[in-house]
Amino acid sequence: MEVSLQIQKRQRGSLEDIKKIDRYHEPPRSGLFCDILWSDPVDNDQGSLENGWKGNEVRGCSWFFGVEAVHRFLQRNNLISVIRAHEAQLEGYKMHRWKGSQDFPVVITIFSAPNYCDVYKNKGAVIKFENNTLNIQQFKDTPHPYLLPNFMDVFSWSIPFVTEKVTEMLYMLLKHEDQDQESENDIINQQDIEKFKQITQSEQSKTYEKNKSLQKQLSRSGKEKLRSRLKFVATMMKMQKTLREENESIVQLKGACPDKRLPKGLLLQGKEAITDEFNYMKLADSINEKMPNIQIPQQSIQIKKPGQSSKKK
């Protein structure tokens, strides 16, 4: 069970207050019950925070608390540290040593889900407390069976590959035809030259030269058309490859993001925007860190308390 603080202006928050909470209904959007679930420690090395607390815009409710608020809570209840969860950590845990590196951390964040949402790439961790010794054990996630991004079917996924390879084949065929044509023309022209040198008169030579010039013009025109096609196919081949690679990246990112949508401006920022996978995924998933903005009537919630017998209508 997660343990947290109530950080309110009234500065209540004793263990007795926590014990009095009626936990058998949906958590409200404010108050002690809400703060136990949704409050977070401020994210800086000193725990400095004006007034000891501030509104928690990440969760959409409750508060951020700092070192002053924690010290007051610990002293009031004669405690050493607050152990809490409900916040992803890259190493699976975080020691908030706001009193100094030598002292026991005043707040410990523990997060047991490795590779959270299958995209965070974080470790999981648990606390083991035995014989007055506190140990933290880390562990990694277990590989899943392979699935295509966004559960795409094999046919749809393979179309860009097939298109790219067909374009490459067409390019190689046209290129080979161009090379064969050049080689064949060279052989025929050389044979004709040798033949007509031996058997033709001066007039015949002139006629041959005219025919040869015309043949070269036609041959040159055909070669230019073929080379133009080659350039077009080569351009298409490069475009197909680029589109396939970009499509793969976008599909993978969409599969990792909430609602299958990329954050605005991400693609314009380039590769640098997603270098740090953990921070990026945490940012992309930030909408899911908030308390659901749904008002549920308390009378509609049916939660059976321990030892309570079920009643038939």
Automatic annotation (TrEMBL):
Molecular-function GO terms, alphabetical: calmodulin-dependent protein phosphatase activity
- The parts of the chain that form a coiled coil are none
Q: Name one GO biological process term.
A: calcineurin-mediated signaling
Q: Which residues form the Serine/threonine specific protein phosphatases domain?
A: 1-152
Pfam families assigned: Metallophos
PANTHER family in the record: SERINE/THREONINE-PROTEIN PHOSPHATASE 2B CATALYTIC SUBUNIT 1-RELATED (PTHR45673)
This protein's name = Serine/threonine specific protein phosphatases domain-containing protein
